[in-house]
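Working notes for the structural subgroup meeting. M.R. asked for a predicted model of this chain before we commit to crystallization trials. I am recording the input and output together here so anyone reviewing the notebook later can reproduce the run.

Input as submitted:
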Amino acid sequence: MGIIVFLVDTSASMNQRTYSGTTLLDIAKNAVETFVKMRSRINNLDRYMLVTFDEPPFCIKSGWKESLATFTHELKYMKASGTSTLAVALKETFDLLNLPRAQSNTDTYGIGRNPSFLDPAVIVALTD
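Returned structure, recorded in token form:
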């Protein structure tokens, strides 16, 4: 049906532990995994993308053309380190979502948008 992008904060602050002993990153990973499982029961046509707060192009962990197995593998082995740059991560995510629109002539300069070719997209940001 559409593209669902998970933008996960992988800064060092996500290593903080909660009262139950799990890290904030583990909670974010669990939330993404639960969301994908519940959503796949309803709709198997969704495409998922995993983007982190790392510097581009290392922020792309799993693209929408890759399998769900690759997505879950990258999600499972994600580590928290570095700094938090939400603005850069959001800009990179929007740029990535715009690539197929530019390639398929959905957005054309001077003519406007062709809505029949649009793929709906959702960005789910998980950060502290």
